Amino acid sequence: MSPLAKSHRSKQGLTERFDLFINKHELCNAYTELNDPVVQRERFPVQLKDRQSGDDEAMAFDEDFCKALDYGLPPTAGWGLGIDRLTMLLTDSQNIKEVIFFPAMKPQDEPANKVT
């Protein structure tokens, strides 16, 4: 289940979300934000358990986020477009590494015997 997505209004066990796939690649995902702090606090321990079982995408418990929800979050929804994935689609690339500018993120290694 999507930990930050609101439960479906009429279908138990589902959340209000969708993903857009083109040519077997996820391009975008969207969902209605869960704005109930009680339900959110119930979901975080499940995510922690999933994380401990090896799920790298599971959310960490975020009490600050839950406190913010206590003050009220209006009904909210949004979507996220993967620019790197869109670039893959437009350039017909097979691997995301072909379109991400890794050298900008790679730390510079200093020679081990550098004299200062």
UniProtKB/TrEMBL annotation:
Keyword Nucleotide-binding: yes
Superkingdom to which the source organism belongs: Eukaryota
Domain Aminoacyl-transfer RNA synthetases class-II family profile: 1-107
Keywords, in A-Z order: ATP-binding, Ligase, Nucleotide-binding
GO molecular function: ATP binding; lysine-tRNA ligase activity; tRNA binding
GO biological process, one term: lysyl-tRNA aminoacylation
GO cellular-component term (any): cytosol
Record InterPro entries: Aa-tRNA-synt_II, aa-tRNA-synth_II, aa-tRNA-synth_II/BPL/LPL
Keyword ATP-binding annotated: yes
PANTHER family from the UniProt entry: LYSINE--TRNA LIGASE (PTHR42918:SF9), LYSYL-TRNA SYNTHETASE (PTHR42918)
Protein name, UniProt field: Aminoacyl-transfer RNA synthetases class-II family profile domain-containing protein
